[in-house]
């Protein structure tokens, strides 16, 4: 953190990009370096898209870095759709990451995303549902908080939900 602070104080550009299009915020978010992310946000590091179409928020979510996702959601200027996608991707990633598998966190973050979709009854953000995929047991993605609640105790269904969510977002 000290090196990052020093560089920023010496007027290093917090939005400088590597060849892949990633910024320091992308790298710190993916690695889960919370204090560096906090410092970069403080220095107005932008939520830019890298060469793979991913923002630092999405990179953190895809890497199961919940603390970084929550920090970025609290401090970054992102619209509702971006918030929802980040929460959904985080939940889906916990269902499909060998080192970070946690089905309770899967449900938790998918549910938070669903609540965000339905937060404003005058402005619902409906999912663009993918067609059924045989590899996912011909399941369709949950569309309502009630549908998600109905699979809360079903690990296999939550795992499939996560795969479908990742397919849609990534």
TrEMBL record:
InterPro entries per the UniProt record, alphabetical: Ankyrin_rpt, Ankyrin_rpt-contain_sf
Domain of life: Eukaryota
Key words of the record: ANK repeat, Repeat, Ubl conjugation pathway
ANK repeats: 20-42
SUPFAM superfamilies: Ankyrin repeat (SSF48403)
Statement: the UniProt record of this protein carries the keyword Magnesium: no
Family: Belongs to the fem-1 family.
Name of the protein: Protein fem-1 homolog B
Name of encoding gene: FEM1B
């Amino acid at each position: 953190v000290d090196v990052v602070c020093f560089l920023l104080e010496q007027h290093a550009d917090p939005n400088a990009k590597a060849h892949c299009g990633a910024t320091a915020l992308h790298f710190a978010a993916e690695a889960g370096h919370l204090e560096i992310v906090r410092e970069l946000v403080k220095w107005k590091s932008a939520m830019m898209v890298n060469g793979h179409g991913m923002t630092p928020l999405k990179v953190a979510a895809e890497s199961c870095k919940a603390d970084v996702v929550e920090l970025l959601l609290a401090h970054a200027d992102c619209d509702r759709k971006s918030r929802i996608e980040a929460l959904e991707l985080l939940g889906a990633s916990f269902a499909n990451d060998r080192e970070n598998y946690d089905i309770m966190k899967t449900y938790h973050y998918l549910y938070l995303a669903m609540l965000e979709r339905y937060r404003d009854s005058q402005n619902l953000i409906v999912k663009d549902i993918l067609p059924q995929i045989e590899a996912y047991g011909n399941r369709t993605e949950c569309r309502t908080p009630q549908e998600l609640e109905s699979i809360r105790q079903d690990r296999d269904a939550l795992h499939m939900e996560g795969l479908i969510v990742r397919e849609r977002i990534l």
